[in-house]
Amino acid sequence: MTSRIYVAIDTPDMARAKAIATRCKHHVGGLKLGLEFFVAHGQPGVREMAELGLPIFLDLKLHDIPNTVAKAVQALSALDPTILTVHASGGRAMMEDAKAAAPTHTKVVAVTMLTSLDADDLTATGVGGSAHDQVVRLAALAEAAGLDGIVCSGAEVAAAKAAWPKGFFVVPGVRPANAKAGDQKRVVTPREAVDAGASILVIGRPITQAEDPDSAARAIGATI
Ligand SMILES: O=c1ccn([C@@H]2O[C@H](COP(=O)(O)O)[C@@H](O)[C@H]2O)c(=O)[nH]1
């Protein structure tokens, strides 16, 4: 069975990115390339990583006016990513236009509330209610916009899935027991994320900063 783990390759260093991906490629289901990697290497870098043969999750978290996001998605289409992210707070029209511009089989998923934020952060940005309420609200908006799913923490995925059973649920902020949370505030273990209904888990530092990324990915895979 294909692993549900997408390893977050968060580095601007191409040699390191390829080395990590090559080492753990038999124990993960895909590679997640985000802002740090894309700003450093752009589309040629993504193509180079895709040559390793794993599905590519392009986590660019696009967030702008509908026309700008749609044009950006069009410009990325040749990369044919398996998964692409936009921010749900960009609004319904932005998400609709992003989905319309994406290749048919690319899953366009909306980031609801970053896993590095907690309830206090939400209040500080002027949003009332709990993380749970915010995620469920933005999940409904993403579904209405025709997206494929959302990104949320493992703490909200069960509620989001109950409201959207056919949605695709991406869960970052995943930490094996006793691993350092770092800047992540809404954290669950890999097992908890899967039990709650995650479609895929995004895991970065617990794998990429391990002495042996291959063993780390394998060990985490064994817990789910
Ligand atoms: O809410 C979100 C959305 C995306 N991410 C991304 O996932 C990885 C997590 O890396 P770790 O090292 O496992 O913390 C990273 O690339 C983020 O950009 C997220 O953490 N939370």
Automatic annotation (TrEMBL):
A GO cellular-component term linked to this record: cytosol
EC number: 4.1.1.23
Reactions catalysed according to its record: orotidine 5'-phosphate + H(+) = UMP + CO2
Known pathway: Pyrimidine metabolism; UMP biosynthesis via de novo pathway; UMP from orotate: step 2/2
Domain (Orotidine 5'-phosphate decarboxylase) ranges: 4-220
Gene Ontology BP annotations: 'de novo' pyrimidine nucleobase biosynthetic process; 'de novo' UMP biosynthetic process
GO MF annotations in UniProt: orotidine-5'-phosphate decarboxylase activity
Annotated Pfam families: OMPdecase (PF00215)
Catalytic site positions: D59, K61, D64
Residues reported to bind substrate: 10, 32, 59-68, 115, 175, 184, 204-205
Keyword Lyase among record annotations: yes
InterPro entries found in the cross-reference section: Aldolase_TIM, OMPdecase, OMPdecase_AS, OMPdecase_bac, OMPdeCOase_dom, RibuloseP-bd_barrel
Keyword Thylakoid part of the UniProt annotation: no
Highest taxon in the source lineage: Bacteria
Keywords from the named record: Decarboxylase, Lyase, Pyrimidine biosynthesis
Family: Belongs to the OMP decarboxylase family. Type 1 subfamily.
Quaternary structure, from the entry: Homodimer.
Function comment: Catalyzes the decarboxylation of orotidine 5'-monophosphate (OMP) to uridine 5'-monophosphate (UMP).
Protein name: Orotidine 5'-phosphate decarboxylase
Organism: Sphingomonas oligophenolica
